[in-house]
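Appendix B, record 7
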Amino acid sequence: MEYPARTIARANRALRCAPFDLDLFVEMQFSSVALSAIAGEAGVEHHYTLKVLPEFAVEHHLLWLIQVGVLRREVDGQGLTDSFRLTPLGRQLVERWQHQSSRTLYAPTWGDRLLNFLRRWLRLPL
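C-alpha coordinates (predicted):
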Protein backbone atom coordinates (compact mmCIF):
# COMPACT_ATOMS: atom_id res chain seq x y z
CA MET A 1 0.00 0.00 0.00
CA GLU A 2 1.33 3.43 -0.93
CA TYR A 3 1.15 6.32 1.54
CA PRO A 4 1.82 10.01 0.90
CA ALA A 5 5.35 11.11 1.80
CA ARG A 6 4.03 13.48 4.49
CA THR A 7 2.11 10.64 6.14
CA ILE A 8 5.20 8.44 6.20
CA ALA A 9 7.39 11.26 7.53
CA ARG A 10 4.90 12.10 10.30
CA ALA A 11 4.53 8.45 11.32
CA ASN A 12 8.29 7.87 11.22
CA ARG A 13 8.89 10.93 13.39
CA ALA A 14 6.19 9.90 15.88
CA LEU A 15 7.71 6.41 16.21
CA ARG A 16 11.21 7.76 16.72
CA CYS A 17 10.02 10.27 19.35
CA ALA A 18 8.08 7.65 21.30
CA PRO A 19 9.80 6.25 24.42
CA PHE A 20 9.72 2.69 23.10
CA ASP A 21 12.42 0.38 21.80
CA LEU A 22 12.34 -1.23 18.36
CA ASP A 23 11.76 -4.61 20.06
CA LEU A 24 8.22 -3.54 20.98
CA PHE A 25 7.31 -2.72 17.40
CA VAL A 26 8.93 -5.90 16.09
CA GLU A 27 6.77 -7.90 18.51
CA MET A 28 3.69 -5.95 17.38
CA GLN A 29 4.32 -7.09 13.80
CA PHE A 30 3.38 -10.63 14.77
CA SER A 31 1.08 -10.35 17.77
CA SER A 32 -0.76 -7.86 19.89
CA VAL A 33 0.98 -6.55 22.99
CA ALA A 34 -0.95 -5.75 26.15
CA LEU A 35 -0.56 -2.41 27.89
CA SER A 36 0.45 -4.24 31.07
CA ALA A 37 3.42 -5.81 29.22
CA ILE A 38 4.72 -2.35 28.25
CA ALA A 39 4.10 -0.31 31.41
CA GLY A 40 6.18 -0.47 34.58
CA GLU A 41 8.99 -2.94 35.17
CA ALA A 42 7.54 -5.35 32.60
CA GLY A 43 8.34 -2.92 29.79
CA VAL A 44 12.01 -2.83 30.74
CA GLU A 45 12.14 -6.60 31.27
CA HIS A 46 10.67 -7.25 27.81
CA HIS A 47 13.02 -4.64 26.26
CA TYR A 48 10.02 -2.57 25.15
CA THR A 49 11.18 0.55 27.03
CA LEU A 50 14.54 1.77 28.24
CA LYS A 51 13.16 3.01 31.56
CA VAL A 52 10.15 2.30 33.73
CA LEU A 53 7.09 4.20 32.48
CA PRO A 54 3.77 4.48 34.29
CA GLU A 55 0.73 2.95 32.60
CA PHE A 56 -0.85 6.37 32.01
CA ALA A 57 2.22 7.63 30.14
CA VAL A 58 2.49 4.46 28.05
CA GLU A 59 -1.16 4.62 27.06
CA HIS A 60 -0.83 8.31 26.22
CA HIS A 61 2.07 7.61 23.83
CA LEU A 62 0.30 4.60 22.29
CA LEU A 63 -2.84 6.66 21.65
CA TRP A 64 -0.75 9.23 19.79
CA LEU A 65 0.70 6.46 17.62
CA ILE A 66 -2.86 5.35 16.89
CA GLN A 67 -3.73 8.89 15.78
CA VAL A 68 -0.82 9.05 13.35
CA GLY A 69 -1.82 5.68 11.88
CA VAL A 70 0.99 3.44 13.15
CA LEU A 71 -0.90 1.36 15.72
CA ARG A 72 -4.40 0.05 16.28
CA ARG A 73 -6.16 -1.35 19.31
CA GLU A 74 -7.13 -4.98 19.29
CA VAL A 75 -10.81 -5.82 19.36
CA ASP A 76 -12.37 -8.95 20.79
CA GLY A 77 -15.97 -10.16 20.95
CA GLN A 78 -16.75 -7.71 23.73
CA GLY A 79 -15.16 -4.61 22.21
CA LEU A 80 -11.80 -2.86 22.55
CA THR A 81 -9.04 -4.48 24.57
CA ASP A 82 -5.91 -3.08 26.21
CA SER A 83 -3.71 -4.66 23.50
CA PHE A 84 -2.10 -2.96 20.52
CA ARG A 85 -0.57 -4.03 17.21
CA LEU A 86 0.89 -2.40 14.11
CA THR A 87 -1.14 -1.14 11.17
CA PRO A 88 0.12 -1.73 7.61
CA LEU A 89 1.84 1.69 7.75
CA GLY A 90 3.53 0.75 11.01
CA ARG A 91 4.65 -2.57 9.55
CA GLN A 92 6.25 -0.80 6.58
CA LEU A 93 8.25 1.50 8.83
CA VAL A 94 9.39 -1.24 11.21
CA GLU A 95 10.44 -3.49 8.32
CA ARG A 96 12.58 -0.65 6.93
CA TRP A 97 14.19 -0.08 10.32
CA GLN A 98 14.96 -3.77 10.80
CA HIS A 99 17.04 -3.79 7.62
CA GLN A 100 19.22 -0.90 8.81
CA SER A 101 22.36 -1.83 10.71
CA SER A 102 22.51 0.81 13.42
CA ARG A 103 19.88 1.55 16.06
CA THR A 104 21.22 5.11 16.33
CA LEU A 105 19.37 5.82 13.10
CA TYR A 106 16.18 5.76 15.15
CA ALA A 107 17.24 8.56 17.50
CA PRO A 108 15.13 11.67 16.85
CA THR A 109 16.77 15.03 16.30
CA TRP A 110 15.71 18.11 18.26
CA GLY A 111 13.86 19.23 15.13
CA ASP A 112 11.98 15.91 15.07
CA ARG A 113 11.05 16.34 18.72
CA LEU A 114 9.83 19.90 18.13
CA LEU A 115 7.72 18.96 15.10
CA ASN A 116 6.27 15.96 16.92
CA PHE A 117 5.43 18.18 19.89
CA LEU A 118 3.68 20.73 17.67
CA ARG A 119 1.69 18.08 15.83
CA ARG A 120 0.78 16.23 18.99
CA TRP A 121 -0.07 19.00 21.40
CA LEU A 122 -1.19 21.83 19.14
CA ARG A 123 -2.62 19.68 16.32
CA LEU A 124 -0.90 21.81 13.70
CA PRO A 125 -0.89 20.44 10.13
CA LEU A 126 2.92 20.39 9.71
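Remarks on this record: The chain has seven helices and three strands. The mean pLDDT is 90.
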